[in-house]
Amino acid sequence: MKKTYMLTLSSIILFAGCSASNWNLGKTMTNDMPQIDKSQEQIKTTKEKNADNFHIDTVINTWGEPTSTRINSAGNKVYVWENCKPTGNFIENCNENGCETIPEKECCERDLITDEAGYVQNLKEAVNSCTSN
User: Fold this and answer.
1) For residue 83, what pLDDT is reported?
2) What is the pLDDT of residues 54-97, one digit of tens each?
3) CA–CA gap between residue 111 and residue 66 (Å, rounded)
4) Where would one find the signal peptide in this protein (predicted)?
5) Which residues contact 129 (CB under 8 A, 6 or more apart)?
6) Residue 79's closest CA among 132, 133, 49, 115?
7) Cβ of 58: how many Cβ atoms within 10 Å?
8) Residues 21/87, Cβ–Cβ less than 8 Å
9) Strand (E) positions, 1-133?
10) DSSP structure class, residue 46
């Protein structure tokens, strides 16, 4: 009985101590806070805005060079990769040298749109969808 009582008491103390929250601890404002100049604030805002986005250089390092690039009507740079996958079927490819059987491919384009800082704005959509040629 004494062990059960001690176990219960220890559990209550543990949960009561661990459930106390200090969520307001860092929210107090003091006059000793360092002043941030506008350029640091602008850099921080840009990084926060693009925290979930990859820079186009990172994508190019992963996917290789794009097939083409263009500027869309909004003035954003669009990088285009042609994505070809075998269909599982075979076709006859004939030319002046004769015919050969080759795997059939289905190709589509993946378009990545970047903002003025070069961060990709539609990576998830581009990976999930492909426009047929």
Assistant:
1) 85
2) 899 999 999 899 999 999 999 999 999 988 888 899 999 999 99
3) 9
4) 1-20
5) none
6) 115
7) 13
8) no
9) 68-71, 77-95, 98-113, 131-132
10) H
112-130 average pLDDT score: 89
Q: Which residue is associated with the tokens 């060079």? A: 65
Q: How many angstroms separate the CA atoms of 107 and 64, rounded?
A: 17
- Number of Cβ atoms within 10 Å of the Cβ of 119: 20
Q: In whole angstroms, what is the distance from residue 127 CA to residue 39 CA?
A: 34
pLDDT in tens, 5-56: 665 656 666 555 544 444 433 444 555 555 545 555 555 555 555 667 889 9
Backbone angles phi, psi at 116, to 5 degrees: -65, -20
How many beta carbons lie within 10 A of that of residue 79, not counting itself?
21
